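Notebook p. 47: complex prediction with arginine.
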Amino acid sequence: MSESTGKPAKAWGGVFTEATDARMEKFSESISFDSRMHEQDIRGSIAHARMLADVGILTADEFAAIERELTAIEERIVKGDFEYSISKEDIHMHVESALIEKLGDVGRKLHTARSRNDQVSTDFRLWIRDAIDRLDVLLADLQRAFVGRCDGDFDVVVPAYTHTQRAQPVLAPHIWLAYVEKLQRDRERLADCRKRVNTTGLGAAACAGTSLPIDRTKTAEYLGFEAVAANSVDVSSDRDFAVEFAFDMAQIAIHLSGWAEDWIWHSTVEFDFLKLPQTFCTGSSIMPQKVNPDTLELIRGKTARVIGNLQSLLVLTKGLPLAYNRDLQEDKEPIFDSFDTVEASLALAAPLVAGTVLKRESIAARIERGHLDATSLMEYLIRRGVPQRSAHGVVGRLVRIGLDSGRALAELSLDEMRAVCDAVDEEVYNYLGAANAVKAMKSYGSTAPDQVRFQIDAWKERLGL
Ligand code: ARG
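Predicted complex, structure tokens below:
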């Protein structure tokens, strides 16, 4: 309570003659979620105070006291010995008022040449930067889990699908490395996003900058920011960096969701390609035989929320006028939620990938079904001078004979094949069958065993395996 007016004291309360409505206070608080940024808020405040001392706005002693008390506040928060109250709205007000409680007027100087508008942007950027670094570690762990399988699974030939129809045979590690490539692009996107996140708005103050002689390059340096944003109005309103991060997380979730979908199917009795580790499955309360792939289903299911969070941020920022608007307080929960979801999904995906067993016999027993070697046969004919369109037609007719008589292409006799196309000779059998079709591959990036070996080795090197 302020003694003179009897209304609750607010940092911004001077002009007010009436207390805030309690319902409004509850509606507008952000401490219930932005307390997550306490470490960043305090790091940012210490850097700001250090800069204020550099330029002579604070004395060295004042800075030392502020740094000491802010550090003590951080320790209290970490210990759980710090009280939050919605009357102080957000983490910025909590930290500042705790400082003022300890230091009085010296504490009242901390907010010099700063507004919560540039402060919240700084805290959020620091938080997202840390989050990006954490996700990069987890993405690399998952890449290692896939690459770590490749040697052991090297000789296993599996069907690759297009349109969910058996298409061509490939080496199992070729599939694993397809996921590794996607995860690599996720990492590259995050690294690119990090550049824009790692720009400081601190010193933009509310929206116009300040008449005080601050040095924004100093705070940038103290906080490890690589660039100083050049327009204070832009800083106050900019949330591109958060939207971009939300997209990057949505793309990771979508990649995980696609992988989860594949493995859910591939672990069914119908496919029988994979045995998932039981530690990541659950049973049924009524059907005793069930081992359900819940982890994969939840990774797929939670992707919906991560996509929704991106949508929330896009809609939140659409049509917002310059510069800061309180709407922007709504930016944090979607980001925190996406991060928590993607972080947990990645952390589970890596051990699940490492612990899954490929069911070699079951895969091998059906690998010759579906005429996966048809393209191999077509290319054999092309090498023997048959134009591609004609070769396609020939192989189509041979597949038809196979389908009608229940045989694989390798089971057709030379005479049967020559009756359709006299370019066929006995060498054809070197190109028929799933394993031969894989061996015949040549192009860069294909499933040719030497290409796959080259890629595995390159990934091992990149990932420090
Ligand atoms: N709680 C606010 C947020 O998260 C802090 C910034 C408030 N700025 C203001 N001018 N009211 O966005």
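Notes: Residues 44 and 123 are 7 Å apart (CA to CA). The mean pLDDT is 97.
Next step: compare against the earlier run before touching the bench.
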